[in-house]
Amino acid sequence: MALEKAKQTLETEKATLTAELEQAAAARQEMERRRKQSDQQVQELTSRLTETERLKTDVTNKAAKLQVALSRFSTLFLWTVCELLSELYLSHFVLTWR
Length: 98
Known about the structure:
Helix content is 97%, strand content 0%. It is mainly α. The longest helix has 95 residues, at 2-96.
């Protein structure tokens, strides 16, 4: 009878340990799934960051080119205005001497 009770105790303990092992395995699988999901999110965010940095560089380069073009246009515009004013002044000066 003591042997039977010991056997039953061992079987109960075995069942408990088996259930705990199954729970641990399920928790491990869940952790692995979450890790893979996190890795995928990191890859996606890294990719988006790289693309954003590329776009920022493109926009910065375009802005610099536009700034140079604006500076050239401003210089040309001012030069043209000065030329026109000079011609206007000269034509006015010639007309007043006639």
